[in-house]
Amino acid sequence: MTIVDLRKATLIGLANQRREVLAGLQALGVLHLETLSETTAATAHIGEVDADLTEAIAFLLAAPFKRRQIKDPTDFDPATVTRDALRIRETMRELEDRREALIDRIENLEPWGNFDFPDLDDLSGYKLWFYILPHYQMARVVASDLVWQVVHRDNRDAYLVVVSKTEPPEDAMPVPRVHTGSITLARLQEDLDRVEIAMEEAAIERTQLTRWIHLLLSGKADYENRLSLNRAELVVLDAGEVFAVAGWAPEDTGERLAAFASQHGLALLWEAPSAEDAPPTLLKNPPEVAAGADIVNFFQTPGYGSWDPSAVIFFSFAVFFALILSDAGYALVFTLFPLLMWRKLSRSPRGRRLGLLGLAMGLAGVVYGALVGSYFGTPPPAPFLAQVAILDVRDFDAMIRLSVFIGIIHIAVANLARAWAARGSSIALAPLGWFFLIAAGTAYWLQGEPTLVSWLSGGLGLGAVLFFSGSAPLAGAAGIGRRLFEGLKGLTDVTKAFGDVLSYLRLFALGLASASLATTFNQMAADVAERFAGIGIVFAAMLLVLGHALNFVLAVVSGVVHGLRLNLIEFYNWSISQEGYPFRAFAKKEIDPWNRS
């Protein structure tokens, strides 16, 4: 839950050591390289990982069954394996399209039966014309002079064959004719069998190729490492007989870099970042809440001099999701997804982090759902659960107060964290002033009238925001005037603070909508079951399943979207003062973990 302290490392050595040193640094994997050369534009010409290789690996990894992996590269030809994999992929796509077309064709032809067209001479020039008529239009055909025969009926249409030398005129038939084609139903079914057999053979070929996945991944990793090494050579400063490479490294890696420099006979300059430097940001979090860092880096990496909001975002996102879901039953269903997918998710660090976030969201939803006493829109099913239900989502006054109070706490924490990150500097006083202003407003809201606490807090906050929102030096009347002008400009954010706090009312509104829809579907199902005896039970069950499934999806989507919005817009705007860029270590890539069984 911290931003790792970094140091600027500069290594200087002989030019003939450059490739060896860079390879060693890549193996060490602790340095974020900085550009010292002006030739970085040439990086566009270094090359990229072969797209065909990447697509072939993805295709083989997606195979439902995999063979035991071959580790010996003696008989391995990556080009051939890649080419074969992409050929099989294209073949399977074509066969799947052909299969779907045949199935659709067979379904359309089955009502007509298995027939073959005779020669025109055998019918004395007569032809067969096919029509699908709704039953209510059959009277028009019966009253006509056409020669026809119904060959099939269903609950809506009649399948009609007209015998005529020419196509019946449009005014004689109420619907256009159907084109059945010249291929018989039996022939289509034979073609479908052949296509499905070919699909099975292609799937077997694909499974056979999966034995090379490990070597394909190894080759891809090696190639990516070579590309990374080539790019690193372009950011190195080449000064004739010597070269220099610079970058940022975590403070606790200093001894390892010093040992590396000593081993290779390099000069090492190890410096703390200066005020002019802009180091990358490396977030360090416990594994349990590391998913918060993924959210942070996805949206906006905080600056090096800021603070790490990962843990706050992790927990607040789970809480906001729970408030919007507002149902313990839905939360239990949601929790099943990360639990059932845990084995697959835990194969990679990112998947494990995502699974832990899902579990936190689900557990928070269960707890809050129990507090509001909602289980798929029904009251608590047991007495002890009823005792836990201390909140009522339909108590508008209480839920509005709760939502606003959550917004106040969230925005206040954002300002306190921003002030803490700037501690020791006058910059910290402006967010601290906003904290006191928010506290004063909250005290006035709760008390209903001004109190000594609200006056003191408001006065402190107003003064801090007014005098420390700007950066103009307090030297002379002009400097003080500029500082006050900047402070007055900063005070206009009071409307933003008010609006941001009220934005948290969406937690109440969306939670109420979710709970109301769940109750409505339950009531509709009960009415259907009561009104239609017997078959009504089936319709009621279908209504319950479809209704709750729809409400569940809407609630989950709302919880994710608006939970992220409150964290990444309202909270972020008050807590993060500077944007940074992520720390990316110059390191060798390892083979991606996957199921090798």
From TrEMBL:
Any single biological process term in GO? vacuolar acidification
Q: What is its subcellular localisation? A: Membrane
Q: Report which superkingdom the organism of origin falls in.
A: Bacteria
What membrane topology does the UniProt entry give? Answer: Multi-pass membrane protein
Name a GO CC annotation attached to this entry: proton-transporting V-type ATPase, V0 domain
The protein's organism comes out as Sulfidibacter corallicola
Q: What is its main location?
A: membrane
Q: Which InterPro entries match?
A: V-ATPase_116kDa_su (IPR002490)
Q: Which GO terms describe its molecular function?
A: ATPase binding; proton-transporting ATPase activity, rotational mechanism
Q: Which parts of the chain span the membrane according to its record?
A: 312-342, 354-378, 398-417, 429-446, 452-480, 501-521, 533-557
The name this protein goes by in its record:
V-type ATP synthase subunit I
> What keywords does the record list, in alphabetical order?
Ion transport, Membrane, Transmembrane, Transmembrane helix, Transport
Which family, according to the similarity comment? Belongs to the V-ATPase 116 kDa subunit family.
